[in-house]
Amino acid sequence: MRWLIGAIPDWYALFREVYKTLKPGGIFESKESTAIITSDDGSVAPGTALDQWGHIFGEAGKKFGRTFKVVDDGIQQKAMEAAGFVDIKVIELKVS
C-alpha cells in the first residue's frame, strides 16, 4: 500500500482492517513519504515555494481531517503496533 498521505481519515482503523484480513504469518508493506521538502546543501532555502509546500499541505490536511504528516508524526508505526502487528521494520530512505 502506498502514497495515501492526505487520503486516509483514520490510519488506526485502516491498519486494524489490514491486520484482520491477513492470514497468520502474513506480510504487509506500507510506503509513505513526507510532504516536507528539505535539502542537505541548502538549496531549499527558508521561505521558498519548496520550503512552504509541505507546511501548506500540513495545514490543509488539518482543515479537512486527512493528515499529510503520516511520516513526520510516526503514525504508520504507531497504528501498526496498535493493530497488533509485530516485527515491524521501518526503513527510511533519502531521495536525491
How would you describe the overall organization of this protein?
10% of the residues are buried. The mean pLDDT is 94. The two termini are 23 Å apart. The chain has 3 helices and no strands. It has one domain. Helix 1 crosses helix 3. The longest helix is centred in the middle third of the chain and has 16 residues, at 49-64. With 96 residues, the protein is mostly helical.
Layout of helices and strands, plus pairs?
Blueprint: H1 11-21, H2 49-64, H3 75-83
Helix pairs in contact: 1-3
Compute the gyration radius: what is it? 15 Å
Low-confidence stretches: none
Give the overall average pLDDT. 94
Number of strands: 0
The portion of residues forming beta strands comes to: under 5%
Kindly, what is the distance between the CA atoms of the first and last residues, rounded to a whole number of angstroms? 23 Å
Helix content: 25-40%
Topology as a string of helices (H) and strands (E):
HHH
The class by helix and strand makeup works out as mainly alpha
Query: Helix tally?
Result: 3
Quick description:
By secondary structure, this protein is mainly alpha-helical. It has helices spanning 11-21, 49-64, 75-83.
State the main characteristics.
96 residues; mainly alpha; 3 helices; 38% helix; globular
